[in-house]
């Protein structure tokens, strides 16, 4: 399969009941030259995904310098114990190499493949290093956008439902009329707030029910899944509430997952920057500023700047000086 010129229509357009994932990653030319870098793992449903790059010059017997691009599917250890031996899933994918000067000259490769226990990786394409011009480089890095859609799957467990009692449930968190059956040890390990809550007797016959006030039950369900280390996909609409809950219940791993989403997912930059500013994530703002090269791009990304903190405004002014 070869790399092709990419137009705006080259996106996934099918039906993907198993979920879709869209993320961005960058690798320096030094990384590509010296090793085989891959992106951070990105969760969609019960599986995680990464995209990696291999320089063929590092392969034994190779006489050319070309890039192999691959997609890899992975199951978390606690999910592996729940799947059937012959599990498999069917997925479509598109990988786009970004041209920073002219998006109509992006290049892309796409494919459709089956992943399983014996086939977790799909090598997708080759591109000659000599074909990569300066327009594809930003701070000596190549930037890729990855889009994955799961068409079907068999043998994988359904996502954990904390509204259903399970064998490992030993406490109940009540939100209004809704009840969430949780494992006290798991939440206590991740949160000092829950740890202190569970030291006291709860309500109910078994004295194991604990009320949680002022939260949306749907978002709280998602939050409990993330706080319990259950692989879970979420979107930009959930981030602000999830961050507020992570701060309220002092769960750093949920905040880190939200931060990683803001940094690496392809989302509305203006909204992502606004949320990052509200929650003091200056490292997210710095990362989002990197690919912006013109005043119009900065104005579009910072359309909510009037509400930004002084620290965030200093980063914006520094970038304005660089591109002016």
Automatic annotation (TrEMBL):
InterPro entries noted in UniProt: BTB/POZ_dom, MATH/TRAF_dom, SKP1/BTB/POZ_sf, TRAF-like
Residue intervals of the BTB domain: 169-226
Gene3D superfamilies, sorted: Apoptosis, Tumor Necrosis Factor Receptor Associated Protein 2, Chain A (2.60.210.10), Potassium Channel Kv1.1, Chain A (3.30.710.10)
One Pfam family of this chain: MATH
Name of the protein in question: BTB domain-containing protein
Organism field: Caenorhabditis nigoni
């Amino acid at each position: 399969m070869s790399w092709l010129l990419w137009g705006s229509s080259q996106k996934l357009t099918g039906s993907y009941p198993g979920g879709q994932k869209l993320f961005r990653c960058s690798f320096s030319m030094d990384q590509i030259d010296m090793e085989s870098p891959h992106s951070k793992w990105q969760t969609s449903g019960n599986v995680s995904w990464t995209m990696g790059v291999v320089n063929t010059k590092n392969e034994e017997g190779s006489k050319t310098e070309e890039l192999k691009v691959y997609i890899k599917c992975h199951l978390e250890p606690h999910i592996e114990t729940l799947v059937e031996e012959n599990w498999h899933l069917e997925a479509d994918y598109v990988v786009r190499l970004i041209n920073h000067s002219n998006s109509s000259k992006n290049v892309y490769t796409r494919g459709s493949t089956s992943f399983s226990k014996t086939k977790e990786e799909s090598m997708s394409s080759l591109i000659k290093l000599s074909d990569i011009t300066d327009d594809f480089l930003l701070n000596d890095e190549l930037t890729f956008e990855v889009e994955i859609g799961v068409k079907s799957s068999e043998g994988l467990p359904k996502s954990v439902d904390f509204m259903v009692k399970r064998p490992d449930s030993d406490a109940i968190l009540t939100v209004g009329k809704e009840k969430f059956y949780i494992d006290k040890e798991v939440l206590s390990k991740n949160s000092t707030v829950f740890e202190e809550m569970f030291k006291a007797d709860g309500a109910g016959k078994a004295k194991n029910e604990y009320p949680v006030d002022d939260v949306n039950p749907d978002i709280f369900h998602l939050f409990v899944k993330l706080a319990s280390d259950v692989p879970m996909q979420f979107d930009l609409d959930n981030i602000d509430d999830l961050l507020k809950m992570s701060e309220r219940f002092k769960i750093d791993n949920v905040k880190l997952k939200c931060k990683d989403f803001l940094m690496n997912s392809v989302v509305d930059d203006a909204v992502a920057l606004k949320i990052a500013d509200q929650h003091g994530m200056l490292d997210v703002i710095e990362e989002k500023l990197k690919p912006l090269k013109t005043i119009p791009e900065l104005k579009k990304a910072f359309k909510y700047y009037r509400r930004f903190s002084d620290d965030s405004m200093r980063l914006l002014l520094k970038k304005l000086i660089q591109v002016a």
